[in-house]
Amino acid sequence: MNTVDTPVVHPLTEAEREAIRDWLAGSLNRPHVARRQWAKGGIATLALGRRYSAVCLTEPLVYAMTESSRPIHVTGVLASAFQGPVLHAPSIGRFYAFTPPAAPAWRHSPYAEYLGRDTYLGVPPLELTDPADGLDGYWAVPVTCPGDLCDPARLTALVAAGSLELRGSES
């Protein structure tokens, strides 16, 4: 595994942040609802399966893939490995990798689940990028531009490898 120990920093202008918010909120028929929730500092509920989908990853899988549970290390490895945005919801022990709308082609894994059409995901404001920002969720790997998504082939390979490692440790 990659041993990156520092997170990738993506300084964005306000115009770039607005473009990203528009793109994310555009998954809804009423994007202004998400923008209002973010403006209040809250989590916005976004629709999956049209502009983007997500793969829900358990913390044990992510920690096996990154060989660490230290947030700074996990962030660096995920940024390098997935090359796209990832949310972390510590209160429920899940990571969410944003992917193209087509389902990835991995074999069944009890540690990962594709979330597509007819699924909604709570998404924090773009500014929440630190684990100390709250247990409800933060961007472990922030969105860098509209259309920024994880590489499905890399995600599939890492889910398969991490799942094998976890199954091996259970026997």
UniProtKB/TrEMBL annotation:
The scientific name of the source species is Streptomyces xanthochromogenes
Its taxonomic placement starts with: Bacteria, Bacillati, Actinomycetota, Actinomycetes, Kitasatosporales
State what protein this is by name.
Uncharacterized protein
